[in-house]
């Protein structure tokens, strides 16, 4: 017997997102990996984009360097949150385009580790079936 079909979510309309359940990621097209990823300094260190010795530097200087290298799109001075850059198709820089799997899974940012418990609609994800 075939499993029931799940309607694809519109990533921009959280009311179409699916309630998360274990195993849902196994058949997904990695839609969450097209959402903006907000990170903090500890995440950048874990990713290897910032050296532990740079921790004492002003965040604006770190942000400027990472923006020039194309790894960070924005930096919010008030919240001290960086937004990672994405590819032209909105995929995360670390998403493998063929397998649709994270290439830095063991070092992924806290935002990714905690999805979908945190995000635009906690407990829900923008599920799109893998093709």
Features:
131 residues, elongated, alpha+beta, 3 helices, two-stranded antiparallel sheet, three-stranded antiparallel β-sheet
What this model shows, in words?
The structure is a single chain. This protein has 131 residues and is of the alpha+beta class. The protein has one domain. It has helices at 41-47, 59-68, 110-113, and strands at 18-19, 38-39, 72-76, 81-84, 124-125. Strand 3 and strand 4 (81-84) form a beta hairpin. It has a three-stranded antiparallel β-sheet.
Going across the major beta sheet, what is the strand order?
2-4-3
**Which range does the strand content fall in?**
5-15%
Order of helices and strands: EEHHEEHE
Low-confidence stretches: none
Mean pLDDT: 91
- Helix and strand content put the structural class at alpha+beta
The end-to-end span amounts to 20 Å
What is the 3D form?
elongated
Helix content: 10-25%
Helices, strands, pairings?
Elements: E1 18-19, E2 38-39, H1 41-47, H2 59-68, E3 72-76, E4 81-84, H3 110-113, E5 124-125
Nutshell version of this structure?
The chain is an alpha+beta fold. It is built from three helices and five strands; from the N terminus they run ββααββαβ.
């Amino acid at each position: 017997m075939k499993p029931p079909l799940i309607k694809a979510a519109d990533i921009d309309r959280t009311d179409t997102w699916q309630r998360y359940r274990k195993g849902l990621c196994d058949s997904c097209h990695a839609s969450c990996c097209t959402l903006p990823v907000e990170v903090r300094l500890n995440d950048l260190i874990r990713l290897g984009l910032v050296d532990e010795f740079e921790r004492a530097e002003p965040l604006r200087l770190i942000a400027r360097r990472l923006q020039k290298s194309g790894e960070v799109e924005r930096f919010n001075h008030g919240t001290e949150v960086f937004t990672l850059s994405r590819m032209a198709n909105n995929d995360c820089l670390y998403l493998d385009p063929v397998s649709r799997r994270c290439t830095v899974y063991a070092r992924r940012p806290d935002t990714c580790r905690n999805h979908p418990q945190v995000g635009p609609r906690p407990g829900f994800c923008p599920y799109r079936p893998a093709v």
